[in-house]
Specification:
Number of helices: 1
Bound molecules: zinc ion
Shape: rod-shaped
Number of strands: 3
Order of helices and strands: EEEH
Strand content: 15-25%
Distance between the termini: 63 Å
Number of domains: 1
Structural class: alpha+beta
Largest sheet: 3 strands, mixed
Strand order of the largest sheet: 2-1-3
């Protein structure tokens, strides 16, 4: 079987047997991890803005 990264389509290796297995390569995992950190930061910011705006509207 062929081991392929489902995200960057890179062939990571082969193993005995037929078919294709899709995984996430270590490079992409690291990339995704850093993106999640950024995303979380944006989410917290967006949450604060929303809270602030809704609060003002309610006054
Ligand atoms: Zn990949």
């Amino acid at each position: 079987m062929t081991i392929i990264c489902a995200w960057c389509k890179r062939v990571l290796g082969t193993k005995q047997g037929t078919g294709t297995v899709y995984v996430m390569c270590p490079e992409y995992l690291a990339k995704l991890r850093s993106e999640i950190v950024t995303l979380r930061r944006h989410l917290i910011g967006a949450e604060r803005v929303t809270e602030k705006l809704l609060k003002k509207e309610g006054e």
